[in-house]
Automatic annotation (TrEMBL):
It comes from the Bacteria. This is FAD-binding protein. Residues 11-178 form the FAD-binding PCMH-type domain. It comes from Antribacter soli. GO terms for molecular function: D-arabinono-1,4-lactone oxidase activity; FAD binding. Pfam families: ALO, FAD_binding_4. One of its GO terms (cellular component) is membrane. InterPro entries: ALO_C (IPR007173), FAD-bd_PCMH (IPR016166), FAD-bd_PCMH-like_sf (IPR036318), FAD-bd_PCMH_sub1 (IPR016167), FAD-bd_PCMH_sub2 (IPR016169), FAD_lactone_oxidase-like (IPR010031), Oxid_FAD_bind_N (IPR006094).
Length: 443
């Protein structure tokens, strides 16, 4: 059977080019017994360019004992790397706990896959999934097994590893008592975002905004402990929002050829209808994504750069003939661990962009616009989400923790068994051929 992406429309590994492994011994044997390049794969939600196994690279899909069950140790949970995030939240909940991180909108990703690309939600504390990680069990490219904790050298590479260090076979996660928070929902003129969004993020548990660029309004959910009040100056009413959503949905349906509004893409907008204040766990409030085939990109800019990013994006999107299918999503996180985390140096706001695929499986013409957005936001200190659409050739000159990460690759995978063309190009890492012929990058 060929191995596809989550949606079944892109081949990730040919029939004989991947193996389901059922034990850590089998991974160690694969590393010791062959020299072939390997690629660990999770639920395959990452943009296919980063996942596709080139000729000669063998995919590994984990199916480890204890998957989805884990072992609760006090307020911590040890799970296999292939455990789905859904199971993490469920097992913690069975013990009256929740992970010490806000859930992303979908939780069908694996724990190891989510970590590898820096999967996040929102919240300046606990906004990134890795914020809950207290230990990582890694079989590196030499077959050596490491238990890495936040105090260890190597943790900051392993916690956002791009699958380039080896195979994460288990992860320990910090839990905390499962708690309800209030969620205030309101719609405001879009220009409230540059003025207020950073403050809402700083003053709350988590703040997420959706900017309907065609309609100049922003809808916001602020999760808080009861002490936050919506500023009187930025109130709107949900009736206005329902009209905006209906128009956005109808434009989307026309663009993707969905006559009846029954595709997952059209359904993604339904959560905004009749939005009212609510109370619940972070999972009940924010875990509401409907996976739909899409081109999906996020760029994180420093939190203080939100007003500039808003102004420049506003200009660009207004002048573009291409229209987005979903409001621009604003989510703030950080600081977060990880040499390659966009939030490594301080809090950031991710701006998220979505263009859905047509019902007959084609992408609309959004990619050039997405590239223009990358160029623009990079000039404001922006960095991409590593698991979504990105153009390695458009990245700014290597900076941040790239040098530290390259050093970690030299340490954990000196023979480049887990090389990945896209990530290597982005990071300025030399490939396997160069290493084998003696040109290892030591930067
Ligand atoms: C519909 C949709 C919604 C999404 N929502 C969000 C969101 O709310 N927030 C967000 O931040 N992101 C989101 N994403 C992105 C998603 O969280 C990331 O792409 C994530 O990495 C996917 O995890 P996965 O299990 O599918 O891993 P894969 O996509 O299969 O792999 C991702 C990376 O992890 C590596 N990897 C996988 N398993 C292992 C392992 N055991 N050991 C070492 N490396 C491994 C792979 O080599 C690859 O580099 C979304 C994506 C889609 C398509």
């Amino acid at each position: 059977m060929t191995l596809t992406n989550w949606n079944g429309n892109v081949t990730i590994a040919a029939e004989d080019a991947w193996t389901s492994v059922t034990s850590v011994d089998q991974i160690e044997a694969l590393l010791a017994g062959t020299k072939v390049p390997l690629r660990a794969l999770g639920s395959r939600f990452t943009y296919p360019m980063q996942l596709r196994c080139p000729d000669g690279t063998h995919g590994i899909v984990l199916d480890l004992p204890g998957r989805g069950v884990g072992e609760v140790r006090g307020d911590r949970l040890l799970v296999t790397g292939d455990t789905l995030l859904t199971d993490v939240w469920r097992v913690f909940a069975d013990h009256g706990l929740e992970p010490a991180a806000c859930p992303p909108v979908i939780t069908r990703q694996t724990v190891a896959g989510a970590l590898a690309t820096g999967t996040h939600a929102q919240g300046l504390a606990g906004g990134t999934f890795s914020d809950a990680v207290t230990g990582i069990d890694l079989v590196d490219g030499t077959g050596t097994r490491h238990w890495l904790t936040p105090d260890d050298d190597g943790f900051d590479a392993a916690v956002l590893n791009l699958g380039c260090l080896g195979v994460v076979v288990a992860v320990e996660l910090q839990g905390r008592p499962r708690t309800d928070v209030d969620c205030t929902r309101f719609t405001a003129p879009a220009d409230a975002l540059p003025e207020h969004y950073a403050t809402w993020s700083r003053d709350s548990v988590a703040a997420k905004s959706w900017w309907f660029t065609e309609h100049d309004v922003a809808h916001t959910w602020v999760a808080h402990d009861g002490s936050w009040a919506r500023p009187a100056s930025v109130c709107g009413d949900s009736g206005d929002l329902d009209r905006v959503v209906a128009r956005t949905r109808s434009q989307l349906m026309t663009d993707i050829g969905d006559g009846g509004g029954q595709t997952p893409a059209a359904r993604t907008l339904e959560k905004f209808l009749a939005a009212t204040d609510t109370r619940g766990t972070l999972q009940e409030i924010f875990h509401n994504g409907i996976p739909a085939p899409q081109l999906n990109m996020e760029i994180a800019v420093p939190l203080d750069a939100v007003p500039a990013a808003y102004a420049r994006l506003n200009e660009l999107l207004r002048s573009s003939a291409t229209k987005l299918h979903y409001p621009v999503i604003l989510r703030s996180t950080g600081p977060a661990r990880g040499h390659l985390s966009p939030a490594h140096n301080g809090p950031v706001t991710y701006f998220g962009f979505v263009a859905y695929m047509t019902t007959d499986g084609h992408l609309t013409t959004a990619r050039p616009l997405f590239d223009d957005i990358q160029r623009l936001l990079h000039t404001l200190g922006g960095w991409p989400h590593w698991g979504k659409y990105l153009s390695p050739d458009l990245l700014p000159a290597p900076t941040n923790g790239f040098a530290e990460f390259r050093t970690a690759v030299d340490r954990f995978d000196p023979d480049r068994r887990f090389a990945n063309d896209t990530f290597y190009q982005a990071l300025g890492l030399s490939d396997r051929a160069a290493v084998v012929s003696g040109g290892r990058h030591n930067g």
